[in-house]
Structure formats: structure tokens, C-alpha cells
Amino acid sequence: MKIRFTLNGKQILVEVDAETRLLDLLREDLHHTGTKEGCGEGECGACTVLIDGRAVNSCLVLAPQVDGKELLTIEGLAQLSQSVSLSSADQGHKCGFHPIQRAFVEKGAVQCGFCTPGFIMSTYALLLKNPDPTDEQILAALEGNLCRCTGYLKILEAVRYAAQLMRGGK
Amino acid sequence: MDEQYVKIGSVEELFQSLQNPGAVILCGGTDLVLKMRKGLLSAKTLLDISDLDQLREIRQKCGCIEIGAAVTFSQIIEEAIIGEQIPILVMALRKLGSTQIRNRGTIGGNLVNASPAADSAIPLLLLDAEAIIANPAGERRVQLEDFLCGPGKTVLKQGEFLSGIRVPIPDPDFSLFFHKVGRRKALTIAIASLGALLRMKDDAIDEIRLAAGSVAPLPIRLYPLETLLAGRRVTPQLIKQARNIIPQCISPITDLRATADYRYQVIGDLLARLLLTMPN
Predict the structure, then answer these.
(1) Whose CB has fewer CB within 10 Å in chain B, the N or C terminal residue?
(2) Which residues of A fall within a CB distance of 8 Å from B49?
(3) Domain spans of chain B?
């Protein structure tokens, strides 16, 4: 069947099977390999993407279900920094990384990096709704993402810093 | 591999499509997609109701709140009216899955799965919620307790579907309790859970409702305990008496998550915690 959706601001028209997972559509067919497959069971969050502004596990969504929806992946987040249709929160940063990516790099919240796209997408979904979250709210927003390297403290620090960057602080 | 997928656009279309043999309703997919991949469920046709507006509404009606079957857990948690009128539901759903799961998973899906560990069932049992079942002739309502009839089993007949849930708005004076014990806080299937609505009067328990998960074939109300505790003052003796009748209320099994003995112990401890920490 044919489905049509928006991926990182671009219209996509693609043929999919009924049982294809969104994760496989993104990685195998559309070559957006920034989204990772960890557990494949919705436990680890490595495959997190945004559908209509909400974080979801792309391993648990069937591709036909995104027909007519708006998707954002880690590739699209990186592009947001240059996009002309930026929300005010996203404007004013330069290096081609989104402020959340910059924060993760600067705070050392990345080790092996496999879980990082998922953490960043969950962080983005949180900060879209709540630009100034408490630590408790950050931890709740990231509860569906697992990291085996960092011990989470640096991730927490990075999210606090990202929130500050996106609010326009230095 | 030859499954078909249909995005359902109306209730009429859903009734019609349900006539097809091998048709299975799909909504958030957080359980169903996994079951399909593990070969635990085969469907000839997947009927996706996730964009069916009639099943995505939350509305207040005659002292009740009706929640459509396709409403996600996140929508429920964020809906102001639910937070104000039935906060025990929000309290329990915050413990369900993770943000990503709550953004996709639906109340209808959780109930139709009829898992002994269904987190949403605990507050709904406490609230005496009713399942709204749609069939081509109209609708029928059954108490949630009667809707669930065994692990993975409900009273839904061929051609019917769960269209929503009707929740009587409880007395705002109830104190709320929901505690889920698992290996971690997020993304855990309960080893045991206990929920309660409790109202005190003159230093005694005026009314108490108790429900537990993962300690019986289905989430259940603990009626013998409710009867024992109503009207009583909380004393160490009463807590002991309450612990002693727990075996009359639950029938836990030993499985990969915990032993039956541990589950008896956990329910006893949660009950003691509830009684010792309640207001006044």
C-alpha cells in the first residue's frame, strides 16, 4: 500500500507492507539510520522519533499508521537549526547542531552513542512542551530511554543545559 | 506477510470490517505489534482505529466521565477534567510504561488485553467503571469487573468492540493510593500493585475500596478486606487481621517475575503502608 507523510519537513510517498514497522521503513527503505534499533520491544527508546510532536517507539508503530502524519527524526532535528520555519526557541544557534545535540556533546553525555539519538528526541519532545523542566520532569520524560554507558548524570546535566540554551541562555 | 491494513474512517466501516474472518482491531500497537512479531497473534486484516474521532473523545456526562477506547494514556493524563475529577486514574497511568508507550497506548487496548497486570484496570475497578460495548444493534454497558473474564479474555462477542469506558465521578474527599511494585519504576510489569480510595470519619475508616493487580488471573477488587475495614479504627490488631484475610482475596502464582509467597507479602505490606499513612 502507498502512504504519504511528512518526514523532517519533506513530503514522502512510499509503498509499504501492512506489517512493516516504522523503524524499518526509516532505516531500510528511507536510509535514515540515525534512528537505532536496540531491543525492538519498546523498552530501550533507541528508536524514539516524534509523530505529530510526541515521542514514540518506532519499533512499535506500523508504517501504514503514519499515513498523513508529521514525523521528526534525529536527522531532521539537526536540520532544524538551519530551517527557515524555526520556532523562536530554536533560533539563534550556529554550528549546524541543534542546541540539544550541542548540549549532549559539551556535557559529555555521549559515550558509545547508540542510545543518543533516542535520548535527544525524547529531550526535544519534552522541551517543546516544557521549556523549563524540573529534574523530576526530565527524568520522567527520559524514563523510556536506556543508556548502558553514562550512568545518566551527564545526560541529566545535558538536558538541563539544553533547556537553558533553547531558552536563549548561554 | 499477506496481512492487510485498513485505516478505519467510521464506526459503520468498523462494524462492517469486523465481519471479516481474521480481522483484528489495531490502535496504539504497543502490545499488538509485539505480539504479531513474536508470532503470538495472527491477523488477516488489521483494522486501525487510532484515527477514529468518535473513539478519541473525553466527555463529562451525567455525573460520569466517558473516555473513548482510542484515547491514549498521555491524553488522559493531560486532560484537565480527569486530573480534577478522577485523579486516581492519572496517578496510576503515570506509572504505566514510559512516555513513549503512554503516547501510543490506549485505555481500550489496555482493557481489551485483559492482562492480570493491566495498570489502568486498578483505578477503574476502584471507580466502579463500566465498559461501553458497541454492537450493530446499539450499545450495552457492563461493569468492568464483568467485562474482564480471564487472562486475555473479555465478554466481547464476535462483531462487537469496546467503544469506551464510563467512569462515575467519585467523592472528592477520597484519599488516593496507588502503588506498583516492580523491578524498576518505569517500563515495568507489576509484580503486584495495590490501589485504594479511602475516606475517614471520626478517626475511623468511613469507606474504603481496594483493588490489586498481578495477584489473580485478573485485576480484582478486594471485597472481603473492604468489608473488614469499613467502620473500623486503624490499630495494629486491625492491620494484623487484615493481613490474615489477604489469602481470601487474592490467588497469586509464581512466575518469572516473582513467587506467589512474595506477592502475598507485598500486598500485605502495601496494605499496611496504606493504613499506617492515611490521613489522620
Answers:
(1) N
(2) none
(3) 4-48, 54-168, 175-277
